[in-house]
Amino acid sequence: MDSERIVARIDLLIALGAKVKATEQAVSGTSWRNVDHGLNRGFRSAVLSFIELQYGKDHTYYEEFSKAVAGDRDTHIHAGLAILLAIREEVEGGWLQSVRGLVAAEIFADFMDMAAHLLSNGYKDAAAVMIGATLEEHLRRLATATSVPTEREVDGVPVPKKAESLNADLAKAEVFSKLDQKAVTAWLDLRNKAAHGKYSEYEKGQVELMCQGVTDFMARVPP
User: Fold this and answer.
1) Fewer CB within 10 Å of terminal CB in the chain, N or C?
2) Which residues touch 101 (CB under 8 Å, ≥6 apart)?
3) d(CA 180, CA 20)
4) Same domain, residue pair 34 and 129
5) DSSP state of 175
6) CA-wise closest residue to 54 among 119, 115, 10
7) Domain interval for residue 76
């Protein structure tokens, strides 16, 4: 796998981290801010899985990220994103030398394989968040490739459309079928439950079906 593919993975993780950062809220009676616990849990698990595959658990990046993102404060997510950016610069600069990482990069060809890896190790919630993030990115790429707008104006300011809006617009434009639209809606709903900590509302088997379904969908409907 070339460095461009790995950088693309990192960019998706950074986007996931940005979503966590966007949930920052002040904690009454304190000077700090907290982020959404469910989203942050999924982000932390996904990044640690990625770093382990590329560098191994004994690498400084794994240890530093594990320590840095140990809680839900805004400082934790800021530190995590800074580490991801450092990794991105290293990979983009051609400094990824770990044989283990290169072999792992070939085995785990994309985020869906990484999600399946998380599932096989019992991390159904992190896997659901990762699958959902990958699906959303696929919808945006489909929209861009088919000239379906990915933004809407709010008070004169362009705002990115939510995944479900893109899903409806793409089906309306006949980029994919109404049946696919219904399936995407169900997958996005499962992702939202995972992202907001509603872990008891779905089972591992449902996430496994989601993983298989999204993989098939992306193969059948490429950008």
Assistant:
1) C
2) 53, 54, 55, 56
3) 28
4) no
5) S
6) 10
7) 3-108
Q: Are residues 128 and 193 in the same domain?
A: yes
Give a three-class secondary structure readout of 91-138.
Answer: HHCCCCCCHHHHHHHHHCCCHHHHHHHHHHCCCHHHHHHHHHHHHHHH
The pTM assigned to this predicted structure is 0.58
Q: Which of 57, 80, 108 is the last residue of a domain?
A: 108
pLDDT in tens, the chain (223 residues): 457 778 888 888 999 999 999 999 998 888 889 999 998 999 999 999 888 887 778 788 888 899 999 999 989 999 999 999 988 887 876 655 443 444 444 444 467 877 887 888 888 888 888 888 888 888 988 999 999 999 888 888 888 888 999 999 999 999 999 999 999 999 999 998 887 888 899 999 999 999 999 999 988 998 8
CA distances (Å), origin 129, targets 41, 47, 96, 113: 9, 12, 27, 14
Q: How many CB atoms lie within 10 A of CB 64?
A: 16
- Of 89, 108, 127, the one marking the end of a domain is 108
